[in-house]
Amino acid sequence: MYGNDFSAPEDAPGGGLLGEVAAAEAALRAAATRQRGGGPGPDADLEAYFADVIDADQKIEPRDWMPEAYRKTLIRQIAQHAHSEIIGMQPEGNWISRAPSLKRKAILLAKVQDEAGHGLYLYAAAETLGVSRDELVQLLLDGRQKYSSIFNYPTLSWADVGVIGWLVDGAAIVNQVPLCRCSYGPYARAMIRVCKEESFHQRQGYEILHTLAHGTLEQKAMAQDAVDRWWYPSLAMFGPPDGDSTHSARSMAWKIKRFSNDELRQRFVDMCVQQAEILGLTLPDPDLRWNEQCQAYDFTEPDYAELMRVISGEGPCNRQRMEHRRRAHAEGAWVRVAAAAYAAKRSTAREAVAA
Ligand code: FAQ
Question: For this protein, what is any one GO molecular function term (predicted)?
Answer without folding.
Answer: phenylacetyl-CoA 1,2-epoxidase activity
